Amino acid sequence: MILTDPQRRTVLKSGSGALLLGMLLAAGLLPGGEAQAGWNSAAFAAEELNAVLQAMGAEEVSASDELAILAPEIAENGAEVPIGVTSKLADTEYIAILVENNPRPLGAAFILTPQSVPTVQTRFKMGQTSFVRTVVKAGGRLYTARREVIVTRGGCGF
Amino acid sequence: MSNPSRMRAVHKDGITEVRVLMSHVMETGLRKDETGAFIPAHFITEVTARHEGEVVLQVQFGPSVSTNPYLVFSFRGGARDELVSLSWVDNRGDTRTDEVPIR
């Protein structure tokens, strides 16, 4: 559930607002067992990398060489930067793509099925040069990799 | 009423590759208009891809995804004329589904 800015201000103004807001934010982005996580508003609304990783339950991750990030070295149009991830890890079940310097670093999360090929691609707005990071869950464990994408013209429209 | 997603699904060597271009403004909620007011967030939050009715991929989008989201993914299986569908939901609860036969 997403609250608009005016709604969030109204909730926070009332004394118990902060607690209510906390309760309203979903937790647990990473798939565990048979339950499919809904849209994790806490992770997608987080404004800073560590807060994103915390909301994802992904504070403890191992660096992996088995993750390839497909992205241009230099993105000339920050409004549409194609970014993909391929995982060579066995039993890849989840792939997240983060743009570390974006106002909302969590870009997208892919929840795979046994039929999925572990390669995904989409396009992101990038406000400035940034590390693009992936967080992957494979075989029940968390892995990460990152690479820098240089942005010559930012695409967040600010 | 939203515009259709343009989608193409091609199978080769036991794998079906799907490319989709969705139609959506993907407004982040962080931009301001000329008066200085925030333009409300309006973006696709969840995408579900199905092959013959069975989910093959779920995707969650944040506001950083580009306007008119582009998506490429593949799944094992699929044969000519079997249906691949793509559904999305946005933060206002709008939703649409498009489907295409595998080539």
Explain what the structure shows:
- The complex is a heterodimer of chains A (158) and B (103).
- Chain A is of the alpha+beta class.
- Helices cover 19% and strands 37% of the residues of chain A.
- In chain A, strands 1, 3, 5, 6, 8 and 9 form a six-stranded mixed β-sheet that branches. In chain A, strands 2-4-7 form a three-stranded antiparallel β-sheet, with no helix packed on it.
- The model of chain A is unreliable at 5-29 and 31-36 (pLDDT under 50).
- Chain B is elongated, with a radius of gyration of 15 Å.
- Helix content of chain B is 0%, strand content 50%.
- With 103 residues, chain B is mostly beta strands.
- The A-B interface holds A 2, 4-5, 29, 36, 38-40, 44, 79-82, 84, 99, 102-113, 115-117, 119-126, 155-158 and B 15, 28-31, 38, 40-41, 45-46, 51, 54-67, 69-77, 91.
- Strand 7 (116-124) of chain A pairs antiparallel with strand 5 (70-76) of chain B, so a sheet runs across the interface.
- Major beta sheet of chain B, specifics? 4 strands, antiparallel
Structural class of chain B: mainly beta
What sequence of helices (H) and strands (E) makes up the elements of chain A?
A: HHHHEEEEEEEEE
Secondary structure tally: strands of chain B: 7
Mean pLDDT of chain B: 96
- Global geometry of chain B: elongated
Which structural class should the secondary elements of chain A be placed in? alpha+beta
Share in β-strands of chain A: 35-45%
* Main β sheet profile of chain A: 6 strands, mixed
| Interface with most residues | A-B, 42 and 35 residues
List the secondary-structure elements of chain B in sequence, H or E.
EEEEEEE
Rounded to the nearest angstrom, the radius of gyration of chain A is 16 Å
- What is the number of helices of chain A? 4
> Could you tell me the number of beta strands of chain A?
9
Q: What's the gyration radius of chain B in Å?
A: 15 Å
Number of continuous helical runs of chain B: 0
Instruction: Name the helicity range of chain B.
Output: under 10%
Low-confidence stretches of chain A: 5-29, 31-36
Q: Which overall shape of chain A is indicated by the principal axes computed on the Cα atoms?
A: globular
Please report the distance between the alpha carbons of the first and last residues of chain A: 25 Å
Low-confidence residue ranges of chain B: none
